Amino acid sequence: MKGIKLLALSAFSASFLSFTPINKKYIVIDAGHGGNDRGTVYGNFLEKDITVNIAKEIKKLNENQDQYEVVLTRDSDTYPSLGERTEMINKLNPEIVISLHMNSDPQKETPKQGTEVYVQNTDGSKKLAEKISKKFTVGKIEERNLHMLRETKAPAVLVELGFMNNTKDREYVTSEQGQKEIAQKFTEIIREY
Asked: pTM to 2 decimals?
């Protein structure tokens, strides 16, 4: 009977759930966009590449501890739909969800810079946003009716890591050092949560 139940799980869920202790805590990092959805583009820089690089670095930094497991919604140039992402997240029932994105505005070069955090109308989401604001220069924290926030049952935030069309932000988030520093900050946030 157990084997039949395992077979009934999708291969995607089974890979996360079948060999893991029930009490394992999950942290989900959602790398925005992917595949044909490039996200914000500036020259040769694509939002989808920046977000997946940082997500993979966060996972790498958290491999050698046993308090929780970092799960990525994607770790390559694929595009799981928003519905597929939130379905997977809700099956895992994680402690928190962090969706990574890059911002832009209509100007060619914008004076706007820094991080923006969008939250659910929940205490858990707002608490997570507060922790992020202690590590990053956050321009604003506000509620938004976005699929990842609306359809995710766990405390979730959507983080715009900076503006692609601001030279300082772009140079930082596209550099190897910048991506490692961002991943380290998220690792600290996760460990403190």
From this structure: 0.88
